[in-house]
Each structure stands twice: as C-alpha cells, then as structure tokens.
Specification:
alpha/beta, 31% helix, 21% strand
C-alpha cells in the first residue's frame, strides 16, 4: 500500500539545509547517484554494497522510512551511502549547488506516488523545476532513470522530461520503453510488480552537451 503525504502542506514547505557531501561521505569526491523517493532504502543499500567507488544519496519525504533506512545502513557500516529526509522540490537545489561540477552522474525516480486526480498533479515529485535543477548540476552524459507500474504516470513523467532541452531519451531501437532495469537491482515495488506479473514502464534519459542557461 502506498503511504501518501501531501508535499504541498505547510510542514513540507519548510526548506531544510542538507549536510554537505564532505559530511556525508568518507570519500566526498566520488561520483554521486541520487535516488529520489528512496522508500525503505533496499535499492540503494544493495547498489552501495556492490559499487564502493560511488556515493549514493537517498532522499525521502516520509521521515519514518528515512529512519528505518539509516538504521539498516549503519548496521552495514556503509560509508558511501546516506539517507536524508526532505521535500526535494524545496531543499534539493541548494544541496546540489554544493557539489563539484559534473559530480552528479545518475538520478533515479522509481515508482513515485501517482496522485491520480488532475487537481493533485501539482503534488507529483517530477516537474519542470526539478528537472532544471538536475540539469544544472549534472555532467554531460549523466543519466536520469525513471520507472513506474502506472502507464498514465510514466507518460506524464516522460512528457515532462521530453520537454526539457537538456535531456535526450535513450531510445532502444523503436521501442517506447526499455524492458530492463539498467542497474540490475530492484526496488521493493519493482519486485512486487514482477511477482504479480504486472507491467513496468521504464525510460532512460541522457544529459546532452547544452550549457545550462539560468
């Protein structure tokens, strides 16, 4: 069951000052994979274990899930991973500005809350401003990976990114979506959908060489 919180409520509009990369990581200059909506954290925990030459950040708006993920991370003593509580559309841009240029290499947004009603679309995590913030900080050839088990939501997400001049969709032949998670690590929701034999829609975008214009 999805556990919604309203990101537009007053509580979640308070900007948070997130810790700098020098505080978060043992090796703060490693390339960064940012997972927006990290949920219980299992996806990043497995990736961080497999890829010690990368740093991983999981951002989640549901604070109890951040506490749970951090408890698991600390038990495994992973120094290249950190889970943080925030509303990304309020607090992320300032944190990104503190990274070395091009250090942000990968962003994943997986199975975000769908907010089905049109009047609630403004609550969806992916929007024009978020994509611009990522584009401003991401290196050329950096990537955004998105996936969902809801067709109308993935269509909304791809339409949002398709309209951004700084990202190109990575097409696989003539197929509209890619059929495999490129990281070979599944989220909890992904495993649930696979077990139920439900369709999963995935797309990958690559940061092109256009210089960001404020």
């Amino acid at each position: 069951m999805r556990q919604h919180v309203n990101p537009l409520s007053q509580f979640f509009q308070l900007p948070l000052s997130l810790p700098s990369k020098n505080v978060l990581f043992r090796n703060p200059h490693y390339p960064i994979h940012l997972d927006i909506g990290s949920a219980k954290g299992e996806f990043l925990i497995e990736l961080a274990t497999k890829c010690p030459e990368w740093n991983f950040v999981g951002l989640e708006i549901r604070e109890p899930l951040v506490s749970l993920s951090e408890k698991k991370r600390k038990k495994l003593e992973l120094k290249n991973l950190k889970f943080l509580f925030c509303n990304v559309n309020v607090s992320l841009e300032e944190w990104l500005s503190g990274l070395d240029y091009g250090q942000l290499k990968r962003v994943s947004i997986q199975f975000p809350d769908p907010w089905f009603k049109r009047k609630h679309f403004k609550r969806r995590v992916l929007n024009k401003n978020l994509i611009n913030s990522i584009a401003k900080s991401m290196s050329n050839d950096g990537e955004i990976f998105i996936q969902s088990d809801i067709l109308k939501l993935i269509e909304y997400m791809t339409d949002t990114i398709d309209k951004n001049i700084y990202f190109n969709r990575k097409n696989i032949g003539d197929f509209r979506f890619i059929d495999k998670n490129p990281y070979n690590v599944n989220t909890d929701r992904e495993l649930f959908s696979l077990k139920k034999n439900l369709p999963i829609y995935r797309s990958m975008y690559i940061r092109n060489g256009l210089s960001f214009i404020n």
